[in-house]
Amino acid sequence: MMASDEKSILGWREWVGLPAIGIERIKCKVDTGARTSALHAFFVEPIDVNGEAWVRFGIHPLQRRNDVEQICECRLVDERVVTDSGGHREKRFVIATDLKLADTVIPVELTLTDRDTMQFRMLLGRTAIRDGYVVDPGRSYLLGRPKRKKKKGSTGAPRTD
Question: pTM of the predicted model, to two decimals?
Fold first, then answer.
């Protein structure tokens, strides 16, 4: 195991990617109090793909916006009972995918749950980051912020009217 001074530092919130399921970027809360990582899914349905158990689910990758939807399909890894921060127990589907943290890609298991009422659409738990990261709870976006795309027709020049 690496010494803590060799570990990468994350802020309490970061922009990450889930490239294998087509999520270029999603804002997540890094939560060392949570064992498992969770991804917002406004619907989840089990499906059969060539005799294997998979799940199809829809996510809203942008906070406070339900007009942007992405439908994903992943192989089902497990179903687990998870206790949330309020003490409520819920059976959740679990998927495995790659998580992109800046230029590093790590495997991660994600439970799928409706996080629509939560501030963050993704929660990154301690199991995913235990081997190579420490968290600075007083800082944010240490991995960088994504560049905003310019609006169509925008030249970047100041308006003169």
Answer: 0.83
